[in-house]
Design goal:
The protein has one helix and no strands. The protein has about 60 residues and is mostly helical.
C-alpha cells in the first residue's frame, strides 16, 4: 500500500510538472506567433492592398 501511495505521489508531481511545461510551451508559442503576425501584418497589409488593387484594376480592364 505504501508503495502505491509513493507511486501516486510521484505520478501527480510528474504530471503537474508536465502540465506546467506544456503551458509554458503554449505561452511561448502564442507570444512568438503574435509577434510574427504583428510583423507580417505591418509588412503585408500594404502588399495585399496593392495586389488587390492590381487584381481589381486588371479585372476592370479585362471587363471593358
Amino acid at each position: 500500500m505504501l508503495g502505491q501511495q509513493d507511486f501516486q505521489q510521484k505520478y501527480v508531481t510528474h504530471s503537474s510538472k508536465a502540465m506546467e511545461g506544456i503551458l509554458m510551451i503554449q505561452q511561448f508559442l502564442s507570444s512568438v506567433a503574435t509577434k510574427v503576425l504583428i510583423v507580417v501584418d505591418r509588412m503585408s497589409i500594404g502588399m495585399l492592398i496593392s495586389q488587390l488593387l492590381d487584381i481589381i484594376l486588371s479585372g476592370l480592364a479585362n471587363a471593358q
